[in-house]
UniProtKB/TrEMBL annotation:
GO terms for molecular function: actin binding; Arp2/3 complex binding. Residues 61-85 are annotated as: Disordered. Residues 6-85 form the ADF-H domain. It comes from Moschus moschiferus. The lineage of its organism: Eukaryota, Metazoa, Chordata, Craniata, Vertebrata. Gene3D superfamilies: Severin. This is ADF-H domain-containing protein. One of its GO terms (cellular component) is cortical actin cytoskeleton. It holds the Pfam family Cofilin_ADF. One of its GO terms (biological process) is negative regulation of Arp2/3 complex-mediated actin nucleation. Residues 61-73 have a biased composition (Basic and acidic residues). Belongs to the actin-binding proteins ADF family. GMF subfamily.
Length: 85
């Protein structure tokens, strides 16, 4: 039971981008949108937004496809993004 199940890996370039993003100095609202590449079983960068409101971000996302968002106000946690209902 000590073995852990790895469902997906995170793209190494995305890991570095997330590290820099979390500790950025800018005060505007920004977000990184990630998705899962099913063929490679890897979490990859889909899009990056600067100076965008949460409402605008919500409108940019597809309605029925899950995405994960990282924003600097969410320290240490990546959360599923809201859908456009």
């Amino acid at each position: 039971m000590s073995d852990s199940l790895v469902v997906c890996v995170v793209d190494p370039e995305l890991k570095e981008k997330l590290r820099k993003f979390r500790f950025r100095k800018e005060k505007d609202y920004a977000a990184i949108i990630m998705t899962v590449d099913k063929d490679q079983q890897m979490v990859v960068l889909e899009n990056e937004f600067q100076n965008i409101s949460p409402e605008e971000l919500k409108m940019e996302l597809p309605e029925r496809q899950p995405r994960f968002a990282e924003d600097p106000t969410c320290r240490g946690a990546t959360k599923p993004i809201l859908h456009n209902y």
